[in-house]
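Format notes (please read before filing issues)

Several people have asked whether sequences and structure tokens are stored in separate files. They are not. Every record keeps both together, in the order shown below: the sequence lines, then the token lines. Line labels are part of the format and must not be stripped during preprocessing.
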Amino acid sequence: MIWRALYSLLWWLLTPLVRYYLKKRARKSPAYLDHWDERFGKAFYPQQQGGIWVHAVSVGETRAAMPLIRALRQRWPDAPLLITQMTPTGRACAEALYGREAEIRYLPYDYPQAVRAFMAAYRPRFGVLMETELWPNLIAAAHDSQTPLFLVNARLSEKSRRGYRRVAALIRPAMAQLTAIAAQTPADAERLADIGGRDIEVCGNTKYDFDPPAEQAVLGAGFKARIGPRPVLVCASTREGEENLILQAWREMTERPLLVLVPRHPERFSAVAALARSCGLVVQCRSDELAVAPETDVWLGDSMGEMFAYYHAADLVFIGGSLMPLGGQNLIEPASIGRPVLIGPSSYNFADACSKALAGGAALQVDSGTDLVVKVNELLADPERMSAMSAAGLRFSQEHRGASQRIVQLIAGRLGN
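Then the structure lines:
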């Protein structure tokens, strides 16, 4: 208890910095000021109580939750649905995906009274935390209110394990209060157990269960029509620093495919467009709704919720967050529709999936922006290899499905229903 009391005190002391952070982020993304009170445990107006509560911190987790939410709804069709996030982009994604069937809210920061107020307001039947959301006060509030709480699709890198072990006196009691844990891989299960996790089952990764919305294929076909016959490389969910590495290499090419850049954070759209222009490249934006001109070098994907449409328009996909030491993003999605995938050297966020995709021939690793350009040229000149990677991607994504149903079986078993 003493460690959690100190942790709670630290939250109180950091409150001015938390508020400053939100206001600073709001300069580029005004949505950070929306629903302000929810973040601090106020302004709860529950539409219904006693529902299924799913917490998915941002966009990636929200999309990963889609097949699980579908399976939960099938198992408990009459239960209300509450979905919480921590970021504006995650909330916008949830509104787009579930706005008609769920109540969408921010999860409050981990102040003791805030999370207790949240639990008292919504009184969920049970809660589901996606991936690695370990908030000691939230977990304690769920335990005190006798709300079963599950950590699912759970992953833990070796780096994160070392970090949590440094605060073992705080984390181990929280892990022990979780009802059960559904780990992605045996290695994740071992690391989660090492920091205090109990009742852990390996259920796989729900990202394999994702079915692309049919309307995204239609939109992607429209994108391809606007682009024309040129080959297309989509660089998806790129992060700050990566675009410069890619663009510097891209401008050295004599015959360029169309480079479609889709930054991960919308507040950076303008900065990335300016960066591309500063490299002497001709830039257009998706938002201009115009056909892509033959002389355009870079088409900026300045839209939200359309990533699968960009994938459908692509010949090749590079996964962002992997050229920099940021752990990479989800390569399963483009592979699931047969797009050959390239990834950089940093892939710890999706280590198991990347390892399987590389071993199965669905993905290819690059070590720099220059190497990315070299391998793109090699692949575009080798249609047979492209076709083999496409088939391998479809096979890879199909072989590992089923995690969502296994997680639902785990939850139902622990609830006794």
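For reference, the curators noted about this record: DSSP finds 18 helices and 14 strands in the chain. Residues 24-204+402-415 form a domain with the Rossmann fold fold (CATH 3.40.50.11720).
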